[in-house]
Amino acid sequence: MYKYSLFFVFLLATANSYGQKLKALYEYLPSPMATFREEVYFQDGTKTSVRDSLPQPKPKATSNGDDEELSGSMSVTLDMGKIYRNIVIQKNNATQLLETRSLKGSNYLVNDELPSLAWNTNFTDVDTLGKHICHKATAIYRGTTLVAYYTNDIPIPAGPYKFGGLPGLIVMLYNEGANPHYWLLKEIEYPYTGDVPVNEKYINTLPKLSLENYIKKEDLETEERMRMMMSKMPMMEGVTVERKKVRGSVEQVYEWEKN
Amino acid sequence: MSLVAVAALSTAAFAGTGSKASKENANVKTTNYKLAKKNAKVKVTEASKESKSMLTKCVYTLNVYNSSGQVIDTFTSQTYVENSCSGFFANCRTIYRHMLASGELGI
């Protein structure tokens, strides 16, 4: 009888945990140039990630600019037109997900056939990040290696952007490579009692594109802007100017680019 | 030869943004070894500096980001100087700032 009672309590706790909503706030750093706020909601197996369209205001610089004067580099940000929030909706950990993406001032609903993430959790590394005891996991994703730290304290298989599927909530995630992106968990509301601030009706009215078509259009747009910039580079005696294309997104190689 | 580049950088650079820009540099790598006439007298003073063995290589990088904060392209300007790269860097910085301010980078 005691065993049955314990089993019932376990079932109840599991069902209760599954039904509870979670809201997690991540800090997303795609580069040293910008930091974005990304909110992740999870309920009944559906994960919704909402990333702000505008970067967080930068803290006031403490230096007087001497570093920049001495350095051999400079950074500029292109105005790519009006940008919208990036929303990712993934239902029941399905490989097909929907996301909204901006291009030339318009908002699109993009359909992504996400390759399944095969997480390797055979690591003994245990780190404490904030107040969470975290375990390491890695996975290969579109030409890059993801490194995630998740916590078993919150048994929700969610994480930032398109990532999740681990035994617990992802606390930190980054991709290895020349241009790493970082996601850091900042706040959690669990259980979360509010609503998910996404209007699915509006999202479904947006013009639709497959991810492949979207990326091809975006690459074309970027290439055109960069060719224009290259054509305006000053020609200087004895100075060689070289242009190097960079794909600064997490995704380095898409499925259709492999052949 | 190399110091000509540094000395002539400002004038040649701004002169180059006009008619030469319309060439639509089809090649990603471009090198210009033709001096504008107004800089010819500077060239004479540097005629003896032919060897690059005693020179310092300077590379100035312009990183371009999109609105999402992702790097999308880099432009590197490379030259050789006799001593410090600081003069070359300062010239590159001045040129890019001028181009940014006048909207010539399409930003």
What would your notes on this structure say?
The complex is a heterodimer of chains A (259) and B (107). Chain A has 259 residues and is of the alpha+beta class. Helix content of chain A is 19%, strand content 38%. Chain A has helices at 2-19, 66-70, 200-205, 211-231, and strands at residues 22-31, 34-43, 46-51, 73-77, 86-91, 96-103, 106-113, 126-129, 132-141, 144-151, 169-175, 182-189, 208-210, 240-245. Chain A has a twelve-stranded mixed sheet. With 107 residues, chain B is of the alpha+beta class. Chain B has one domain. Helices cover 35% and strands 21% of the residues of chain B. Chain B has helices spanning 2-16, 40-45, 86-101; strands spanning 30-31, 56-65, 71-81. The longest helix of chain B is centred in the last third of the chain and has 16 residues, at 86-101. In chain B, 30% of the residues are buried. Classes of the chains: A alpha+beta (259), B alpha+beta (107). At the A-B interface, strand 1, strand 2, strand 4, helix 4 and strand 14 of A face helix 1, strand 1, strand 2, strand 3 and helix 3 of B.
* Topology pattern of chain A, helix = H, strand = E: HEEEHEEEEEEEEEHEHE
Sequence of strands across the biggest β-sheet of chain A: 8-9-10-11-12-1-2-3-5-6-7-13
Number of helices of chain B: 3
Distance between the termini of chain A: 61 Å
Our estimate of the beta-strand percent of chain B is: 15-25%
Give me the oligomer status: heterodimer
Query: Unreliable segments of chain B (pLDDT under 50, ≥5 consecutive)?
Result: 1-51
Spans where pLDDT lies below 50 across 5 or more residues of chain A: 6-17
Helix-strand makeup class of chain A: alpha+beta
The name of the CATH architecture of chain A is Clam
Distance between the termini of chain B: 33 Å
Helix segment tally of chain A: 4
